[in-house]
Amino acid sequence: MWIKRSAGLVPVMVLLLALSGCSGAPGGEEQAQAIRVGYFPNITHAQALIGLARGDFQAALGPDVRIETTQFNAGPSVIEALFAGEIDLSYIGPNPAINGYVQSHGEALRIVAGATSGGAALIVRGDSGIETPADLAGSHLATPQLGNTQDVALRNYLLTLGLDTTDRGGSVEITPTKNPDILDLFRLGEIDGAWVPEPWASRLITEGQGRLLVDERDLWPEGDFTTAMVIVRTEFLEAHPEWVKAWLTAHVEITQWALEHPDEAKSLINTEIETLTGSKLADVVLDQAWDRMRITWDPISNSLFDSADAAYAIGFLNEEPDLSGIYDLALLNEVLASKNLPEIH
Q1: N or C: which end of the chain has fewer CB within 10 A?
Q2: What's this model's pTM, rounded to 2 decimal places?
Q3: CATH number belonging to domain 12-117+225-338
């Protein structure tokens, strides 16, 4: 195993069974007409929410292909499901995708498109006494899951400040916690802050009277970094490239529509979030969250490689990762070419 620490990693035997085709994954007759899709009920997975709600993906795939969906809370759980042969395509953050690729020695998955840039921040309680990044020493912070994208971002940021976590002999305690529970702990004063994706950053501000300490866009050139992307299980990509291309065609068209019609897109996303979670986002939360992110089909590859370097620096990877084969953008570029859009290199 390449990963030193992770929550609920799949045992080696399960991984080997999945990669050897013994898991009942698509390619056989039983799953030949189904595409199993993972996503989060989260604004950073906007294309998934819009396309599934409106039927864009189903229309692109046609009536003979069934879409089966699974909701997840954080990326490492997606990778577990992918290793077990339970999903074929998913929206996911960069670091779990990196982990899955490295754990499987480059066999399990490919990144086929981007989905979101930006949309992550470190929010601190207004009464925490944390006024500047230097004040994070001795603090108690939270992230959505050990090893997920925001968890790696926070730990790497602390290193740039000369701080370290308690599990490495430092003074900053990090508690990986599901996003809804982070909000509860924040309100109760049991954590000082959290590095979270949208809309949870905006919810901590508006519902928890928190304060923005770090907008992650400020840490990246031109404010661009990948927050969500589309991955496909390699075996499925090889067996059904036409389905993946159809999905990417809808993905690009949804992105174009949402960028041209932001108010309609936000309304549709909010309705879908209410359907999936039981409650809508407040308008102020939705507006703040949307303004801190940008949906895209560009995977922003340089930021992914930097994220991998960060994961290595903080000890999540035992060796410097070779990600030379993690991208397969051929189908995306075919879609872009057909629409006279610039190719991604």
Answers
A1: C
A2: 0.85
A3: 3.40.190.10
